[in-house]
Amino acid sequence: ESFEPAEDPPREVDLHGLRPDEALRRAAREIHACRVRGMDRLKIITGRGWGNLLRQPVLRPKVEQWLRGPEGRRSGVLGFVVADDGGSLVVEIRCDGHPKEWRHRDPDDE
Predict the structure, then answer these.
(1) How far apart are CA 83 and CA 86, in angstroms?
(2) Average pLDDT over every residue of 5-27
């Protein structure tokens, strides 16, 4: 899945050090916060996964599965891309009722 990157850097949430269940709850809260604010992207930092005994990613695959699944879609996830050499995910979020231009509109121009 891919999408056109917006010009503004996305809001970020760092999930390092969280258990998978905590990380998924935190990601869901941040996605909701972005939707409320009319933000269409969120960067979720998971790390590459080399910090565990097996030296394999644990958190990112679980977050990816959640984003692709029914809970992620219900939360407003439209898609995501892997970024930072696998250390993060940039998520595209549906902003109900607010076209993308809404965020950038200058009231002085009206």
Answers:
(1) 6
(2) 85
